[in-house]
Amino acid sequence: DAGGVMALKQPAVPCPWLGPAELWCGAGVCCALVQPGGALAPGHEVLDATVSSGMAEMAHTCRGTINLSTAHIDTEDSCNIVLSNGGRTYHLKANSEVERQRWVTALELAKAKAIRMRNNQSDDSGDEEPASQSDKSELHSTLKTLSSKLEDLSTCNDLIAKHGAALQRSLSELENLKLPAESGEKIKAVNERATLFRITSNAMINACRDFLDLAETHSRKWQRALQYEREQRIRLEETIEQLAKQHNSLERACRGAPGLSASSTAGSVQSAKGEASDEDEETEYFDAMEDAPAFITVTADPKHHRYEPPPQGHVSYNESTCKDLLPKKRRRTRIPDKPNYSLNLWSIMKNCIGKELSKIPMPVNFNEPLSMLQRLTEDLEYHELLDKAVKCESSTEQMCFVAAFSVSSYSTTVHRTAKPFNPLLGETYELDRLEEFGFRSLCEQVSHHPPAAAHHVYSKRGWTLWQEITIASKFRGKYLSIMPLGAIHLEFHSSGNHYVWRKVTSTVHNIIVGKLWIDQSGEIEIVNHKSKDKCQLKFTPYSYFSRDVPRKVTGVVSDAAGKAHYVMSGTWDEKMECSKIVQSSHGSTSTEGKQKTVYQTLSPKVLWKKYPLPENAENMYFFSDLALTLNEPEERVAPTDSRLRPDQRLMESGRWDEANVEKQRLEEKQRAVRRRREAEAVEALEEGYIPLWFERKVDAVTGELICVYKGGYWEAKDKQDWSTCPDIF
């Protein structure tokens, strides 16, 4: 339909009860794309694959809908269609190849129309433009026209009354003339009709007058209500702005007070504890056995693979490549200090409540000098956990290291309250550490709305990781929620173990008043699709009244039969430990009626511990040693690489005013390119943007349509042939 929103039930199994163009059958519900044929199974009902029209449905879709304007439409074989958008995938089946082609054409046309409607409503290329002066003048012009039309209506009413009265007088004069009887009857009939006409005209005039009176009364009423709301909003804004200023003054006074260090106040909100709280009803209890033997069969390396900056005047060697003893490249250990720019956060954020974060026009003052692609690559900081996992003898032991790796990616976020740059469409980022650490990584921004990045990492030490992440975010006034959508895949080359998991929700608190701080909450389920082992990790949200350790993470590793083997425990900002379970038993029943499980374990072993931050990190956006090197200029990279993005480079150098001007130029350039590409796509009924180094495929494990690396980037780098790269900067 023109609205471009397709509501379908979650796919399950093929339904034998539907006729032409059958879809998939769930628990007693079948969804048919066209008129269903044949009988249905008892208890089954048919739901139309309805397509909601209107922009309201596009903006606020219910669960189980796909927005066609950003959906990918693919054909699996002669009769199947695949619709996907942001991690949600539907498989549609037609009765014949001809029917499937009709549906593909119809869906493509609906998608093209939805794109046009979306563009007509607003320019959502990433940063919305403020209401223009022309919009305001158009409103005034419309009101003026309406007023003149009302005056015309009143004039017409007066004329009708005047001409009606004249007609009545003329007819009365005709009646008084000496005419034959027949003529007199006809004149009398005409006079009656004229009377009816006059009565009707008067009724219409009275109705118009009543309508005008009612409209004016209600207009005044709504105007007063609107004025009151405006005044209330202004008062609220002034109050909150005053609070924010007072808070800034207090912070400056606190920083200037003698004997108080910055570290003494940092994290005070998160680490504060209350006494009045019950324990979590689902807490597992871990009893450690003293002097127990070690249980992880892989031996820990005596030194980390982490990059250590070499001392000045010396050349260090990477001992892992002892065959050729290549000198390790010297990388930078600092960036320019963050300028002390004062900015009223509330003045920008007050108009953004409830909006998608990627559509809010944000100055670079809220950013850190890294793109989202670089932040995604930063997840590899503790890659040595995967190198150790390769050597594990059992899949459950390996799962412990994979779980620790999945938690380690959050450790860099604890002080990182600034927003990364939203990448331009087609922007890439490479991290080639093949000689130093054995891996090379490539990211590409494959979609702009919703923002989506594809990532591929190959390690010659025995593993490959890939993912497509879409970031959904909402500003709720007091806090900001960031929800990463999409699965992370990790495969070990020798064993074929294939792990899949998804990220938890990140929340930025104290947006308006107070010190910004970040929390992670939710659950991660890691599944080994080869052995069917599982690990359930729980990120406990911070609570002022909880007696738990802040930022706590707990979990259990179990095999395909559901038997628990290891307990995981720790915090997402500091370290993760695992303990081998020797015995499990049922404990007391919680107040919610759930059975507690008590595990008797061996002594815990530390699998992962966070590296200390570099000196002066608080003035360098709290970057880790790895993060400091991510935006370091490097030769031979693609012309679309994030290192070459001019506004980000200016911001890192401390030239924020110039960076803001450059950011606006890049975004306007991207808008123009997108409009041209979408216009061409509508004409040709083709996909608007096709990634350069990745391609869309149905994942064999999850059934989702995701972007996977198709190859060619590193070969192009070797040849320095970047002719296919778009000009985005």
TrEMBL record:
Region (Disordered): 117-142, 255-282
Lipid bilayer topology: Peripheral membrane protein
GO annotation, cellular component aspect: cytosol; perinuclear endoplasmic reticulum; plasma membrane
Oxidoreductase in keyword set: no
Superkingdom of origin organism: Eukaryota
InterPro entries: OSBP_sf (IPR037239), Oxysterol-bd (IPR000648), Oxysterol-bd_CS (IPR018494), PH-like_dom_sf (IPR011993), PH_domain (IPR001849)
Family the UniProt entry places it in: Belongs to the OSBP family.
Keyword Transport included in the entry's annotation: yes
Location relative to the cell: Membrane
Any one GO molecular function term: cholesterol binding
Keywords annotated in UniProt: Coiled coil, Lipid transport, Lipid-binding, Membrane, Phosphoprotein, Transport
Coiled coil: 226-253
Name of the protein described by the UniProt record: Oxysterol-binding protein
Annotated SUPFAM superfamilies: Oxysterol-binding protein-like (SSF144000), PH domain-like (SSF50729)
Biased composition (Polar residues): 261-271
Main location per the UniProt record: membrane
Domain PH intervals: 81-112
One BP annotation, GO: lipid transport
